Amino acid sequence: KLLCFVEKYLEPFRLSLEKLKEVSVRLKKDLIRGLGKHSHHRAAVKMLPTFVRATPDGTEKGDYLALDLGGTNFRVLYVRVVEEQQKVVKMDSKICSIPQEMMLGTGEQLFDHIAQCLGEFLESQDLKGQTLPLGFTFSFPCEQKEIDKSILIRWTKGFSCSGVEGQDVVKLLKEAIHRRGDYDIGSVAMVNDTVGTMMSCGYRDQSCEIGMIIGTGTNACYMEEIKNVKRVEGEDGRMCINTEWGGFGDDGSLKDILTEFDEVVDQTSINPGVHTFEKMISGMYLGEIVRLLLVKMAEDKLLFKGETSEALLTPGQFETKYISEIEDGLENAQKILTALGLNWDPVDACVVRLVCDTISSRSARLCAAALATISNRIRVNRGLDHLKTTVGVDGTVYRKHPNFSEELQAAVRLLAPKCDITFLVSEDGSGKGAAMVTAVAQRIWLPGCMLSFIFLPIFVYI
């Protein structure tokens, strides 16, 4: 009887295969709209050209720096590409946290913090006297104008720094470094984390043509036929497109599958009405969806004898990592519920586990629908009856959740039956991958030139 009542709350989160196919069809239309010369302005899925037109060939070599800003931590890496071993070797790295007040402060404060962290790292590695090329992974929606010029469209993932939206983030980084005056950097390649993931996996597997992130946020990139990228002149070859699929649904196209809890998460976020798809899928929001469900079920006397706790009533207190831990075992569920100050019994722990499983399952299946859309598009683009391809994947939700990857892969097989997809977990795509993009650029460009054919500054229709 209790389960029947619980199912009433969970049913809206259970998406049938037919509904997932509908979602895939809607995304397919949005991809085309985003690629269009005249329609991209109003497209929810932005389909941003990256100017990356080649993948590694194994001859890249040299020392590089990489910066990775994509969530609540910021990383600096010193990377060596070793041609003889065809390896990207991380020599050393440093993680700097970004305080909440800095995520909501000024852009100058944020970039000064990044420059300080980079300077301290160079000092520790005795690299301040060198001017090394740098790959900058900046995992937010940007309009890439050139490989070293990228304009922030909007902040996501809890950031809201003033004076950055509409500005060139490479310029802001360089200005912060110059304000310090104690070191310099070489040429900069601006890289989205999905592109870095694809490139780092492409060094190991030449058939890797899709990158996917399911972590704090979610996004994907893939190799599109350049003749279909209507904003860019040219007919031959391919270009990596940064889909920014987190914005899918921002035009209301997913309204029929949004629950009341999704709507509360959106309304109480710092960017209401934006990144609808991401808010149903990514680590930034999954914990909050579960918390809202648990509060509602407790208020309706289905959990915890009708009682809540201060922690459960506090937004953000039910962390997304708890979902993975709870699904990994009931003992974990009991520890977490106790830590949250809740008066639970074994049935409560089982129900909480079921809630977590339902929310993470919806996330995995929605990701699968989106990935199937891209895989099917590549297959049709190339006129193939059957596509064999590799997806480079990164992100804590994919990596750390006990069932997420299996559920996603099973759903993709059903939604893209003519695609044979291998999943390759990235070895630090946003760090090593950024260095690899820079390494490919260094390899192809002639001495004295800026960056390469793979980043050909073709005319872009704005």
Automatic annotation (TrEMBL):
Its pathway?
Answer: Carbohydrate metabolism; hexose metabolism; Carbohydrate degradation; glycolysis; D-glyceraldehyde 3-phosphate and glycerone phosphate from D-glucose: step 1/4
Please report the stretch or stretches of sequence annotated as the Hexokinase C-terminal domain: 209-440
Q: Recall the GO molecular function terms of this protein's record.
A: ATP binding; D-glucose binding; fructokinase activity; glucokinase activity
Annotated ranges, domain Hexokinase N-terminal: 6-203
Q: Which PROSITE patterns match?
A: HEXOKINASE_1, HEXOKINASE_2
Q: Which residues form a coiled coil?
A: none
Q: Which domain of life is it from?
A: Eukaryota
Which PANTHER family does its entry note? HEXOKINASE, PHOSPHOTRANSFERASE
Protein name according to UniProt: Phosphotransferase
